């Protein structure tokens, strides 16, 4: 059996759109980890830069917003979803982006990175696992979480990167394995529900 070793197109979804959000700090750190790898080609979809309404009614504005996001999700081989934890779950803007799409997630792996206070966003991660399972996506087992995220970074840099860097390597190695296997599977047998 020959293994497909072409780089995976991975879309980093930045899942918060709140004013003053901390997500871009974590996203910049994560993008550096993604760009350091030869087996990943990163793209970023930021929910703060999408204009998807909460109403699921098709309008010209919705069509335009989807046209800027949907092809990027569809072309991804894998995803990394970055989420904070709001009220023991993930943000509404992220839920809205996920709900506007269906087939784009199917038979693709999703890695989860979270940040927050004492829980580090892990409750949001557990909720996202349920949602992505419903969408026929595979979440990788290992995650990266930042407990007390604001105190972990100084001037946009991690104070002690050793633990997060090791966790990111493990998570991304798993993402690449799943991404290659699922890409080969989709190529050999298109996924259908």
What distinguishing features does this structure have?
alpha/beta, two-stranded antiparallel ribbon, single chain, 6-stranded parallel sheet, 42% helix, globular, 193 residues, 6 helices
What does the secondary structure layout of this molecule look like, with pairings?
Blueprint: E1 8-14, H1 23-35, E2 40-46, H2 60-75, E3 78-84, H3 92-99, E4 109-116, H4 122-134, E5 138-139, E6 144-147, H5 149-152, E7 153-154, E8 157-158, H6 162-188
Parallel strand pairs: 1-2, 1-3, 3-4, 4-5, 4-6
Antiparallel strand pairs: 7-8
Organism: Streptomyces pseudovenezuelae
Pfam families: FMN_red
InterPro entries: Flavoprotein-like_sf, FMN_Rdtase-like_dom, NAD(P)H-dep_reductase
Molecular structure report:
This protein is of the alpha/beta class and 193 residues long. It is 42% helix and 20% strand. It contains 6 helices and 8 strands; from the N terminus they run βαβαβαβαββαββα. It has helices at residues 23-35, 60-75, 92-99, 122-134, 149-152, 162-188; strands at residues 8-14, 40-46, 78-84, 109-116, 138-139, 144-147, 153-154, 157-158. The strands form 2 sheets. Strands 1, 2, 3, 4, 5 and 6 form a 6-stranded parallel beta sheet that branches. The protein starts with 7 loop residues before the first strand and ends in a 5-residue tail after the last helix. The relative contact order is 0.18. The mean pLDDT is 93. This is NAD(P)H-dependent oxidoreductase. It holds the Pfam family FMN_red. Residues 9-149 form the NADPH-dependent FMN reductase-like domain. InterPro entries: Flavoprotein-like_sf, FMN_Rdtase-like_dom, NAD(P)H-dep_reductase.
